[in-house]
Amino acid sequence: MTHNPSSLSRPSERIIEAASRLFFRQGYCSTGINQIISESGVAKASFYTHFPSKEALAMAWLRQREERWIEQLTERISQHQLTEKRVSAMYTMWYDQIREEGYRGCGFINMAGEFSDEKSPVRALVRDHKERVRQVVANNVLNEYRPMMEPEVFDELVNTIYSLFDGAIIQAQNFMQDWPIDSAMKTSMKTLSHYRSGAVL
Amino acid sequence: MTHNPSSLSRPSERIIEAASRLFFRQGYCSTGINQIISESGVAKASFYTHFPSKEALAMAWLRQREERWIEQLTERISQHQLTEKRVSAMYTMWYDQIREEGYRGCGFINMAGEFSDEKSPVRALVRDHKERVRQVVANNVLNEYRPMMEPEVFDELVNTIYSLFDGAIIQAQNFMQDWPIDSAMKTSMKTLSHYRSGAVL
Amino acid sequence: MTHNPSSLSRPSERIIEAASRLFFRQGYCSTGINQIISESGVAKASFYTHFPSKEALAMAWLRQREERWIEQLTERISQHQLTEKRVSAMYTMWYDQIREEGYRGCGFINMAGEFSDEKSPVRALVRDHKERVRQVVANNVLNEYRPMMEPEVFDELVNTIYSLFDGAIIQAQNFMQDWPIDSAMKTSMKTLSHYRSGAVL
Amino acid sequence: MTHNPSSLSRPSERIIEAASRLFFRQGYCSTGINQIISESGVAKASFYTHFPSKEALAMAWLRQREERWIEQLTERISQHQLTEKRVSAMYTMWYDQIREEGYRGCGFINMAGEFSDEKSPVRALVRDHKERVRQVVANNVLNEYRPMMEPEVFDELVNTIYSLFDGAIIQAQNFMQDWPIDSAMKTSMKTLSHYRSGAVL
DNA sequence: GATGAATGAGTCTTCATTCAT
DNA sequence: AATGAATGAAGACTCATTCAT
C-alpha cells in the first residue's frame, strides 16, 4: 500500500540504503545524520528508534556490506575451477566497481581511516572483514595449491596475493585508473606460476 | 617565557606542527580548528592570518610531509648500492614507524580517504606524492635494473614493487601487525630475482 | 518468565515503582519517560494507556507517597504516649532515611522545586502534603498540649515544631550530615518544655 | 556606542543576567540554552565562548548571587547593634523577597534539588553558601552572645537560629504565605531570650 | 602581525507524545 | 489492554570562519 519514491518499505532498510550510499561516497564524518534522514525520508527521532547512534548505523551498514561482499566474491569465484581463473575473478570484481561513477575504493578501509582509535568496534569490524577476505583467498581461491607446498609457504602465497589485491585497490582509488589492478593481476599470475613450479621452495 | 622543546618560535610553524600531529593521529574531520590553535598556542584569528582555511593548512602540512618524506626515503636508499638492499631500506623505514605509539598508516592515503571529491586539491597532492614515490622507486631504487629489460617490463616491475609496498602499509595499519610488511618485503625480493633472472621475459 | 522480587504484576504498579525510584533519586526533569518504561519493563505506548502524561505519573507517585508517608508517620507516633517521645519519633523516621544510599531530602519539596508555576497541580499536591503533616503534628503529636494553652499559642507551637522539622530535612540534604536533625530535635524538646512550663505565655 | 535594549554592554553580563532570571524562576532543567541566548541577545556560539557549558553558567550565576547575597545580608545586619534587631533584619530581607512577583524560595536550595549527585560542583557551591550564611549568623548576628555561654551551647544556638531561618524560607515558598517567616522570627526571638537568660544552660 | 569576541549553520542526540495495529 | 513504530520540537554543544581593534 505504501509506495514511496525510495521504494523500500521498511524505514530501517531505507536508512541503511541511504547510509550505504552516503557513507561510501562522502565518508563517515562528512555525512551528517540530517542528510541521512532526509534522503531516507524518516524523521530524526525515527532514526534513533532504529539505530542507537550514528556509529551503530555505520556498523550495521558495514555488516550488511560484509555479508553481500563475501557472498558476491565467493559466488564469482565458485564459477571457475582453475585457480588462475579464480584469481582473475577476484580482480574483475573490482574492474566493475572502478568503472562506476565516483569510485571510492574499499569502503571498509575508508571507514577504518576515519576511526583513529584502533580499539573502536568499527575497526574491529574492518579487521574481521579483511581477515575473512584473506580466508576466502586461502580456502576458496588458492585451495588447490595448498597440498602442493609446505603450510608456511602456502600462507606466504596467500599473504602475497592478498596484499597485492589490497594494494591495487588503494592505488586504483588514488590514481582513479586501471593500471594498479592490471599490474596486481599480472603479478599475481606470475607469483602463482612461480609458486606452482616450485621455484619458491 | 615558555621554552619547552617542542615550542617553535614562529606561529605558522607551531600551527603546522600541531596540525601534523593531530591530522595524522585523529584524521582531518575529527580534528577541529579549536584543538589546533589551542595546542599550537596561537589565537584563532592569528591562525587565519597564516592560513586562509583549514583545508589550506592540511595542504601545507601535506607539502611539508611530502618534502621530508621523500628526503628521508632517498637518503636511506642512497646509503646502499645493491638494489636488494635499497628495497629493504624502503621497508625498514616503515618498520620504525609501525612501532611508534598509535600507528596510523600512510598520512596521505588517510587524508585522501576524507576528501571524497577526486578533483579536490588535497587529492591532487596525494596523487603527486604517490607518483613521486613511484618515481623514487624507479629512479633511485630499481634504476640498476632499468637497462636490463624492456621499458614496459621495467615499468611493470616498478608498479609491482610499489603496489606491494602500498598494500603492506594498508594492511599493517589494518591489522596493527608486522606480517604484511614482512610478507611484502619477501615477495619483493623474489620478484626482483625473477625479473633479474629474466624469467619474466 | 521474569520473576525477580521487585517485579510487580500490574504494569501501572511497575511504572509507579520505577518512577518512585527515579523521580526521587534523579529528579523529575532529569528522568525521561524512556528510562521509566525501560526500568519498569512496559512498552512506551502502554505507559500512555495507564497515565495520560509524565506529569500525571508524577502526581500518582506523589499521592501514593503521601499515603504511605502519613501512614508510616502516624503509626510510629502512635506507638508512644508521651509527647516528647512522639516528637522524637518524627525525627527518628528521618534518621533512618538519611542513612540510605543517596539521601535526597524530601521528595515533595524537591518536586515542588521543579514546578515553578505555583498554580501547578503538582504544587497543590505538595502543599496538601505539607499541610497534612502539619495537621499530624497538631493532632497526633502535640495534641496533649492543646488544652494547656490558648489556641493561637498552640498554633504557634505547632508551626515552630513543624518549621524546625522542615528546616532540618533541608539542611541534612544540603550538608549530607546528621547534625541538622540532632539540632532540630534538641531545639524541639526545649521548645516543648518552655511552652509546657508556661514561659511563653 | 552600543545601546541595546538589555542595557548591559558586555555579553557575558547579559548572559548571566538572563540566566539569573531564568534559572531562578523556571529552574535549571526547564531553562534551555536557547532561551538564555535569545533573552540575552547573543549568538549560541558566543555563549560558548564565554561559558564552557550550561552548568558552568549556573555556577557563575550562583557565585555572583552568593557574593551579592552575603553582601546585602551583612550590610543589613550591620545597621543594627542589638542582637534581636539583627536577627529581625535577617528575616525582613525575606519579607521583601517574598513579596516580589513569582517568589521562588532560595535559589541555592532549588539548584541543589536539580543536581542529584551530591559530588557535583554545583552542590559544593550550595553547601559553601549555606555554610557561609551560618558563619554570618555566628559572627555578625549572634556574636554578642558568644562570650555569654560555653562554645558548644553557642554553636547550638547558631544552628537553631539558622535552621529556623532555612525552614521558614522553604515553607514560605511552599505555602506562598508569610506565616512561616513570622513564626520563625518569633521563635527565634524567644530562643534568643531563653539562651540569654541562661535557661538553657 | 596579532587577537578576543562574535557568529550562523551545523553537529549528534533526546524529549514527551501519538498513531496504527 | 498492549505495543512497535513514528514524530516535531527541542536539547546541549561544536563547526570553520570573520570582524573590529
* Assembly annotation: homotetramer
Number of domains of chain A: 2
Uncertain runs of chain A are 1-6
CATH topology of the largest domain in chain A: Tetracycline Repressor, domain 2
Which geometry of chain A do the CA atoms define? elongated
Largest sheet report of chain A:
none
Report the strand count of chain A: 0
Report the total helices of chain A: 9
Molecular structure report:
Chains A, B, C, D: InterPro entries: Homeodomain-like_sf, HTH_TetR, Tet_transcr_reg_TetR-rel_C_sf, TetR_C. Chains A, B, C, D: Residues 32-51 bind DNA. Chains A, B, C, D: It holds the Pfam family TetR_C_13. Chains A, B, C, D: Keywords: DNA-binding, Transcription, Transcription regulation. Chains A, B, C, D: GO terms for molecular function: DNA binding. Four copies of one chain form a homotetramer. Chain A has 201 residues and is an all-alpha fold. The first copy, chain A, contains nine helices and no strands. Chain A has helices at 11-26, 33-40, 44-50, 54-78, 83-98, 107-114, 121-141, 151-175, 179-196. The first copy, chain A, has two domains: 7-51, Homeodomain-like (Arc Repressor Mutant, subunit A), CATH 1.10.10; 62-196, Orthogonal Bundle (Tetracycline Repressor, domain 2), CATH 1.10.357. Chain A binds a DNA duplex (21 and 21 nucleotides) through residues 11, 32-34, 42-50, 53-54.
